Amino acid sequence: MKAFRHEGGCHCGATRWTLETSQALDAFAPRACDCDFCTRHRAAWVSDPLGRLRIAANGSVRRYRQGSVQADFLFCGTCGVLVAVTCTGEDGAPRGAVNGNSFDLRDRLGAEVVASPQKLEPGAKLARWTQLWTPMTSDADWT
């Protein structure tokens, strides 16, 4: 199995992430959440439950919780770009997804698909995220 390393982050470079996965960028179909928050930010989420995600910040990271208040949306504290979303999965492990619009090579991603997690109950959302989102490395330095 070939490993791919994808990188991205905010506009100013203060908040960066690395996603390690077994898939090339064109294999990902970013999930464009249709909730009001995500549509206003034009967020389309990418994750790989078999991969690893690391988020690094050279400045502050702003967090925002909305909806079911189970996930932290991460914004660069300097330039304000929405870069990722994280949660604690049902298994107690940190998981995350990155905003497809924050990939360095975002033009290589597959076509977006619409997702509607707002229609799920809070427990079902967490179960879905635990199944779909990427495990995060324990050495994340944005906390």
UniProtKB/TrEMBL annotation:
The keyword Zinc applies. Gene3D superfamilies: 2.170.150.70. SUPFAM superfamilies: Mss4-like. Keywords: Metal-binding, Zinc. It comes from the Bacteria. PANTHER family: CENP-V_GFA DOMAIN-CONTAINING PROTEIN, CENTROMERE PROTEIN V. Belongs to the Gfa family. This is GFA family protein. It comes from Lysobacter yangpyeongensis.
